[in-house]
Each structure stands twice: as structure tokens, then as C-alpha cells.
Amino acid sequence: MNTKNPDSFKQFSSPFSSDDGLRHKSVRGAFFMATTGGVEFVVRLGATLILARILSPEDFGLVAMVMALTGLVDLVKDLGLGMATVQRKDITHREISSLFWINMSVGGLLALAFLAISPAISWFYEDSRLITITPPLAATLLWGGMAVQHEALLTRQLKQGHLAVIRLSTTLLSSAGGIVLALVGFGYWSLVVREVTRSFIYLLGVWWACRWMPAFLLRPKEVRGFLSFGRDLTLGNFVNSITRIDGILVGKFFGSEVLGLYRQAQNLISTPVEQLNGPVFNVAQPGISSLQSEPDRYRRYYQRVVGFVALVTMPLGVFAVAYPEDLTLVVLGEQWLPVAPFIAVFAVAAALRPTMATTSLVLFSLGRAKVMFYLTLVHSLVLTLLMFASLPWGALGIATVHVATSIITFPVTLHYSLKESPVSRGVFFSAIKMSLISTVCMGVSLVLFRLMVPIESPFSSLLAGCAVGSITYLLPWMLLPTGRMELRLILEDFSNALLRRAVRTGPSAVGKHQESRAAT
Questions:
Q1: Dihedrals φ, ψ of 116, to 5°?
Q2: How do residues 117-126 score in pLDDT, each as one tens digit?
Q3: CA-to-CA distance for 378 and 355, rounded, in angstroms?
Q4: Local structure of residue 88 (DSSP, 8 states)
Q5: Residue 496: alpha-carbon gap to chain centroid
Q6: pTM
Q7: Which of 62, 76, 405, 504 has its CB surrounded by the most CB atoms within 10 Å?
Q8: If 0-12 CB within 10 Å is exposed, 13-18 middle and 19+ buried, where does residue 472 land?
């Protein structure tokens, strides 16, 4: 296909218009991604359940040692140019071609750098096996760089359904390969192969979904605006990547086995939250960016996003806090029981962080990358200092610091993120109020239920907890008039999206009611 032709390139570059029904597309896209993500979560959970019973915590820890280092550059390898492509109002074939080759070059250089320092990584962790593990894992940086612009073009057009199918297929194939290798005795190499194939299959998938072909040209001067926006994002991401030294510290001072426990708990909690929360953010980023010049619609759109995120993630996190041992026994098995305290700590973060993170949507959509950088810098400095200070308390102390830092820095983040934007702090707290009240009720009920009705079987205990938690969480929504109204709006959004009905995005009686309530 001749993508050099401006008209031909429009099919890849043109974002949706407001006339297309923004809320309709957003809700439908988020719902499809969440549904597909739910299936993906089941696949990943099943793979974890099998691999955890074949491999040891040390096997997981060895791979995590290298990935803790590659994770430091994972956030900055695209130089913020994927986000810049999504945020930009108008783009050209020449511009995106230049950005593609820049992303590919940076990914390749980073891969070569990790290949060169593999002996140093082995020396740092005092484990010779890392010399051979590092090179294949470093290749994922190159493939990640080659996927940036294709993924951005799909996101720009709200084609999250394509991305969701690609992620599901990637997870299925890579997990199946990892399990087969583990069963025939490849040990930690089965985990290495799983990570490498996951990255490569994803690259092939986004190339297949977005048939755009870059031109053989590199014009840095023509993409100065992208590079400037990406520079500020990259600086923020670089500072944020420093916070990932938790895995490096745990691996260095407490060994691969403890790191395996630490990472397994982190993944077990973060995976379901990401599967549910990720689709919302992927849809919301281009959606809210298109409303920069319409403050009222912008405000209502953001309120719906933060409200939905709180509705989903808060109760999930609190449930995991109440049942860490049972979750460990059911998913990972008895040999992983020491992971339970880590699950409880990370679950607290899962209940709070996703809602807090919605403030980044405001900064991103308004192009305030520099403010995002300064806020990230403050958060990262506080977290890094506290992590080093928590070393005497072991790996659990490092995990606890993550939660503490988010709570300490959030007031500052909230103030400067919403400052000079259409969204006020009143809008934010109004959007999460019902979810917060319901989650507290659920948490108290689960604690009392466990004390009053002890159940020996971990599986039966989880089932009973799900029933009690669901009832006590929904009760405030049903009893309070405000809760019933918000729940009705959420159900209306989903029914309209699923039935392909147009959804009005202009001011409505409900919207006016929400705005007046938020202002108070």
C-alpha cells in the first residue's frame, strides 16, 4: 500500500472526530478490551498456577534479576514518541517514518548495551548464569522499539480491540511455550523463552494490525515538536524508572529466591488490575485529548473515567488485603506461602494507585509534560530515599515503602495536576466518593466475617469472601440515592455501547447534576 500518498496515510493517522460519538466509542472500546483482558488474565493466571508448581522461586528470581535492570530503560526506550504521536492533532507520513527509525535505533542501541554489560550484571548479582540469560532478554528492547509507532497509530484511532486481541494471542502462545519447556525440564530457561517470544509475537501482531510501512528517511529537524514533547515525558519516565530499583535492591541484598517471592506477589496483584484498568487508560488518553477545547465535556469525561477506575480497582485491592494466604495457597501452592505478606502490601497499593494515576491523564491531554516530570521527580526522590532507608526491614520493608510514598506525595500531585485545568479537586473526590464508602464497608465486613466464620479450605474461604464482599460493596450503592444514580449511569453507558446506540456527549440533566454535585 502506498502510504507515501497523503490521502492513503489518513487511514492510519486520522483520529476519530467528536461527531463519531466519543463516549460511545470509548465505552465500547474499553468494554471490549476489558473483556478480552479478562480472558487474558485467566490464561496468565493458569500459566502462573502451572509454572509455580513446576519451577522454584529461585528460577523466577533469576529472570527477575535481569528484568529489574531492563525495566529501568523500558519506560524510556521509546523517548516518549509514542505518546507524542497519540497526543498530536495532525501528523504526516514523513514525521512518523522519522520517529519509527529513531525508536528502532534507540531500542537497538540499548539491546547492544545490555549485551556488552552482561558480564558486569553477572558480577553485580554474583551469579554466572546471568551472563547467558541477559542477551536474549536484551533483544526485547529492540523489538519493543520497533513496535512503538505502529501501536501509537492504532491507539490514535481507538483501535484498542485490535491491540487487545494481539495481547491475548501473545499471552496464549508465549505461556504455552513456557509451560511446555518447563515440563520437559528447561527450568528458568522456560521463563526466558516466554518473555522473549511474548515481545516478538507482540511486534508481529501490531505490524499485522497496522499495515503502515515507514519511508526510508530520517529527518530529526522535521520532528522537533515531537522530540520536545517526548523529551519532557522521557525525563519524567527516566526519573520514574529509578523507582524500579526495588527489584535490583531485593536481588542484590536478599538473593534470587526472595526476589522471586517479591516479583511473584507483585505480578499476582498487578496483573488483574492492569487487565481491568489498562483498557480504560488506553481509551481515555486519545479520548480526553480530543476534548481540550471543550471544558464542560472534558470535565464530564474525566469524571466518568476516574469514577469507573475507582469502582473496579478499590474493591479488588481490599479483597486481596483480606485474603493473602488463601490467594497464595490457591494460585501458587504451599511452597509459596512466604509470598502472602508481600501480596497484602501490594494489594493496598492496587487499591489506591490506579485512581491516583488518573491525574496523569489531565497532564498528558493538556500537553503539560514538564509538570508531569517535576511531579515524577518528587515522587521518585521520596521513594528512592525511603527504599534505601527501609533495607534493615528486608524486602517487605521495601514493598511497604511503595504504598507509603504514594500516600505522602499524592496531595501535591493532585494539586499541581489539576491546577489550571477544567477539572477541580471537588470533581475528583466526588467521582470516587461512592467507591470509597463502599470499599470501606466491604473491608470491614470481610475482616469481621473471617473472625466470626473461620473456614479451613482456602478455596471455599475465597468463594465465601467473594459473596460477602460483593454484597457489602453493592449495598451502599443501592441504598444511597447518589449511588443508585451513578450506578444507573454506568449501566446506561455500557448498554448503549453494546447495543451500538449513539450516546449524547453534550450537556444533559445528569451531567448538570454531576457538575453541581462536584462543585460542592
A1: -70, -35
A2: 999 999 999 8
A3: 19
A4: -
A5: 26
A6: 0.72
A7: 62
A8: buried
